[in-house]
Specification:
This protein is of the alpha+beta class. It has helices at 56-97, 101-136, and strands spanning 8-13, 16-23, 32-40, 45-48. The protein has a 4-stranded antiparallel β-sheet, with helices on one face.
């Protein structure tokens, strides 16, 4: 059946998820969701809900979800930054071709400070990587 529900559902939260076991095999034929655990992806901890311990396969399933979620969030971070580069390029084009003096007066100082701050951090981090690479060689 194309509309089959998963056995488990992860309600994503800012720092992880709440894990539910999905049950459709009941007399009322409704979807019941039993909370079984809370996951914190920042520290990798899985906290069971209630008195029942997790089955080994549930722990494996949750650990696999954590690994996928961490990878997804890392990819999103990189994508967000690449979008920021695109946005900076579009901002440059806007400044060069369309911005009025009044608009530039409104945004110039904030943009310059943010770009300066970013440049300082990027240069420092690059220098740290280069020094670490030289030390490793």
């Amino acid at each position: 059946m194309a509309g089959e529900l998963p056995e488990y559902f992860f309600r994503v939260r800012e720092n992880g998820a709440v894990v539910f076991r999905v049950d459709t095999e009941n007399r009322q034929r409704r979807i019941d969701m039993e909370e079984i655990a809370t996951v914190n992806i920042n520290n990798g901890k899985i906290k069971t809900h209630g008195d029942r311990p997790l089955a080994a396969e549930e722990t494996v399933l949750i650990e696999e979800w954590i690994a996928k979620r961490v990878a997804t969030l890392a990819a999103r971070d990189v994508d967000d930054l690449l979008r920021a580069v695109d946005h900076l390029n579009m901002t440059t084009q806007w400044v060069q071709s369309k911005a009025t003096d009044e608009q530039l007066d409104e945004v110039t100082d904030n943009l310059l400070m943010a770009m300066h701050d970013l440049r300082v951090v990027l240069v420092r981090k690059k220098a740290e990587r280069l020094m670490r690479d030289e030390t490793a060689d």
